[in-house]
Every structure is written in structure tokens, then in C-alpha cells.
Amino acid sequence: MRRETQNILLLLLGGALLKIAITGDYLRYVKASQQPWLIAAGAVMLALAVTAIARDIRTAHANESQAESGHGHDHGHDHGHDHGHARSAWLLLLPVLAILLVAPPALGADSVTRAGNRAPAPPADDLVDFPALPSTSPVDDTLSDFNARAGWDRAHSLENRPVRLTGFVVHKGADTYLARLVIACCAADAFPVTVKVTGADVESLPDDTWLQATVLLVPGSSTRANDWTPSATVEALRHIKEPTDAYEY
Questions:
Q1: How would residue 58 be classed by pLDDT, with cut points 50, 70 and 90?
Q2: Quick one: where's region Disordered (predicted)?
């Protein structure tokens, strides 16, 4: 790969990192705490690229000055054999340009469907003492906490408690789910958490429709047999835009 190609790739990659870090698009790939590292990495790449380009320009000017003074040498060579490698190097620009021009969306219903059931392993005795829920009604909760409490809460704190969940619609066969993807570090390690939902005509909504739904847990619906996927009845729902941060942690 020629130095000019290396410098341009480094410049564009650094610019892409800074762009997604500043605009918030990085939340489609990594968790929020990674933003300072992305900004630092993008700034370092840009600095290195600018430094390398400036040095190459100075070197080129120095060589031209030597040639004009009669001290230059003819270093012409046939570089035709390197054209294939150059074309391969430029292909590296495609993912960078994709991020710069058209940032891919966050993972959604298709990822949930392809992932299948990947419920975390329950505790040894299947029961846990969870913190008490707030006294407000409905209770705002994450899908992750709702799933865990539905399957393993010793106090059955969700029973007869309206809970407001935020997620997107996923259809699997005849069943409809409210889903969210959970990441530990980045989208590559994402796994889904789902709640099977019925009522309020939720079955008619297309995949990837984002909702804020108030639900009531169906007692005893989360079991080993269904991979700890609880069922809930939708009492009320509101259509919302996709959150800036679409994942749970």
C-alpha cells in the first residue's frame, strides 16, 4: 500500500470516528461510556494523518529543489505490479464511507429473530431477593429487569403491578414480543430480552415499531420450558421514536 493511500485511509477513519462520536451515532455500535475513547482515537488518527501528509509534502518539495539544482537523481520505476494491491487497499474505504455517509441503524427485530433464545442462566435455586419496586404506578422498568423479576423474584413483586416498558415489536410465528437488545461492550455481543405480549391490538403492529407499553405480568408464565420468557397483557401503549440509545446494558 502506498504512503498516500495509507494517509488518506487514516485521515478518513479518524474523521469517521470523530463524526459518529460527536453526533451520537456511535451508540448504534458501542455503549455510551466508550465515547471519550472514540473521540481520543479519532483525534490521534487525524493528528497522525495530518503529520504524515505534511512531512511527505515537505519531502516532495525538498526533492524538487534538489532536482532543480542539478543534484537530483532519476528514481523512476515501473510500479504497474502494485496496481492490484492498490485496488485492494482502496476497498478498505467502503466501510469508512458507509459510516461517514449512511450510518447503519441499530440492531432490531431481525437480530432478535436470528439470535433465538439466549436467556441468561438462572440462579442455582431459581429465586433471588430483588430490591423493592417504587410505589409509583405504573412502574417504569427495563425489559432486562422485568424478565429477571418475572422468572426469579422470590417476592413476586411484579404480580398485579402495572409496569411501563420500552421496546420494539418482534413477531415470531403467531406470537408477538416486545424486545430490546442488551450489550456488554458493543453490538457484536448483543443478546435479546423479550416479553410475549397480547392485547391492545399489538399483534397488528409491524416489526421494529417502538412502543412504550404498560403491561401486567401473567403470573407463572416465565419458566424453564420457555427459556424464561414471560408473558404480559398490554393495558396501554404509546408509539415512540427509536431512542437515541437503543440498547440496554
A1: confident
A2: 62-82
| DSSP 8-state class, residue 146 | H
CA 51 to chain centre: 32
pLDDT, tens digit, 9 for 90 and up, residues 151-175? 999 999 999 999 999 999 999 999 9
Please check whether residue 33 is in contact with residue 9, taking contact to mean a CB–CB distance below 8 angstroms.
Answer: no
**How far is 231 from 218, CA to CA, in rounded Å?**
5
Question: Which residues, listed in sequence order, are joined to residue 30 by a DSSP beta bridge?
Answer: 186
Question: Mapped to the 3 state alphabet, what secondary structure does 70-105 carry?
Answer: CCCCCCCCCCHHHHHHHHHHHCCHHHHHHHHHCCCC
> Rounded to two decimals, what is the model's pTM?
0.75
How far is 112 from 115, CA to CA, in rounded Å?
Answer: 5
